[in-house]
Amino acid sequence: MRYLLMSVMIMTACASAEAIVLGQVDDFQDETAIRWWSGTASVSKIATGGPAGLGDQYLQVSTTAYPEGRQLMVNNRMWGGDYVMAGVHSLEVALLNLNPFPLEIRILAPSMDYGVYTSSTAFLIPSDGQWHHTVFSLLEDDMTWVGGSAGDYSMAMRNILSLTIRHQPGEPAYNGPAIVASFGIDNIRATPEPGTLVLFPLLFLAVGKKQRP
User: Is residue 213 domain-resident?
Assistant: First the structure.
């Protein structure tokens, strides 16, 4: 527990005035890579080989030291804030498993005073060397309180400190396991409720892509 607790303390101290915006996307074709970090793994920008192929940059998260290494990466600069007001109720992500074994990826969202929530169900990335697109729902039925302050989902979603994307198998838990592994990640997008995603591209074309510089 001490690894995640330390990360949450750092996030609290570094909380930024920048906040989540519906439609924002990190595709790592520019400086967005420097906004993601990990205290237990290395986060590297790879110049090519993303979902779009040649020249599509992505991030690779790797751990090489056992038992300290944990597969996670965090962003508290651009992905904290009031998810309810922003209309962000899900996250689209492209994931690549670089190991000979599967990984189970979850979203972790700590709040200032209302508890830490994580995905109730992990997304299983097979060890096939292929990119996989998934949508993580942030709706109450799809998130589980795993610690921190007393859980208050409604208030937590209005006061998110950061976004963590991590390998955490089994039942939802506060910490993920120590592991020596690597995975790729790209095209992290803030989206509305999963059921409305079919309409979201049309809205995007109408109002234009809104993304932080």
Answer: no
